[in-house]
Amino acid sequence: MPDFDEFYEFETAVLAAVERDDVTAACEMVLAAGEFPQMVKRLPALPEDDRRRLARNCVELYETAEAQERRDRIRTMHAGLLARQVDLLETDGFEATVLATMRFGDSATDDKMAVLETALASEEFPRLVERLRTFYPEYQRQLAERVLARLYEYAEDPERRERILWMHTALADRPGLVKTEKALALVREVVEHNAPTEGAKIFETHSLPGVAKRLAKLPRDFRRRLAHHCVELYEAAETQERRELAVWMRTALTSRPLEYFGYDELEPMLRAAVERGDVAAACEMVLSDKEFSRIAGNLPRLPKGIRRLLVEKCADLYESATSEARRDRIPRMHALLSLSLGKPDDRLAAARQKALRLPPKDVFWMLAGVEMAWVEMASGRDIPVELGAELRRRRFSGYQGSELRKVVRLLADRHPVLNAGEPWADRALAELSDLPAPWTELIAHAVTATKSRPDTAWERKGRTLLAEVDAHQFSDRALSWLALVPHPTNLPDFDVFNYHAARGLVWLLSFLPERAQTVRGLGAVLEKSLRTAPGVGPAMPKLANACAIALCAMEGEAALAEVARLTTRVTYKSTLNLLKAGLDARAQALGLGRDDTEITDPTILNQLRPEKTPG
Question: Per-residue pLDDT tens for 490-500?
């Protein structure tokens, strides 16, 4: 178990200086410490308000610092106070390795396990745990619940079990590896032995997570006393279970939740560095931050002049970058700044192209993946077709962002009009390659069918485009494509981008002169779209609704007969309501007292005639 007294006197001295309002003296105490890196690692454990005051004072000290070594120390101290950048003090790449595994989610579980195995076997295990605690809480939770819990389940060696439990308790937001009743009993035993009155509030809740959180919020001296008692219990324990309970309680006492400061606390130091002419230092403050994604995403808030200096320095830093982590982050930061300036360039083009060749979903979720795509396309270069398809799907799945909209607009002129991979889209693309340009323009217009039904402007443009192609040929081809839409694909789900295009094709068909085969084709697509899968429901309800709207918009008897037929077969409420509304509209158009003899189909007559009121 680690020595809880380590640096305790140092922390006490720093806090005493802050409490007597001598913040500068507290900062100087840290800067002058012989064990400076280790002292900085303890700063995140200080109270939040005190750290904010120290961080603000760091900015003032930096602005007046002359020696480069002093500026470096002030910048590092400031980073430690923000509970973000203490990895600046390390050269083993541990943080970078952990972050690389977190970027790819569950697909990198084995890599996460390997990283934690390295930490568990390290002679500096306590220090590595503290370094993990400076990561964003969501990353800590993932490591605790998805990796450490599994390692603990299969661990047999007592020391290994204790280390896993220790790390899990330090990272998890709630206990999960100890038995609740026995853990609560141990807490009560330790507290009542030391100070039952002071610890009474701990037991106002009977939940173990609540008790653990209250332990962490106890006064420092009280926690120190309880931690010493836990060490004594650990050494005197006769069973492995009691030893582990002592480890859990001591870790809960010493691993207090960290407060993470955001971009607003970092920005003053960024400005100070740039104003001193130390642009490289400002870049390093962003590139080395554990929360790089969140910090870099706020860079467009900086003044334009500062952003211009940072983007130029990024390109210079890339040439000298030696680690893979730096060569990964620099192009992303450069792209974000370039987009905010509206100024694409050719620098780092090769690095961006390399990043954009990663799996499309990883590129989308990677910070600045969309921005890098914009820089490349705005510079006149292209991006992989598979990535373009993914960005289109994300855009039409509801993801917002002006950058994504810009990229999708640029894709319209350079990438296939549909995303490949679905049977109907593949056939359409193959046929479009031999057809005149107006056909492709029609499909491009169909893709914009994002509303529930076509509005006047959409219909007007659609009719204009239809006038440039053969109506019968368009109807035949469109129906042959639509007949394949509900078919299985190689994708895990249907392509949302193509889905809109299919709906647009249906609407376009309703603008053409009515043909019996068109009516039958739309009815068939409607029914196929409503086929259900277990636990899922109708496959493509929006496409079915589009077919219903199109059929109801047609004025001929064939369409009316098809609508009447479908109302006897369709059970999906949304589509059925559209069909019934269409029938009601036709009935009103015919006039309530009008003779129905002009309509010969009995199904239509039965549907149109008002129900007779009994009696």
Answer: 555 789 999 99
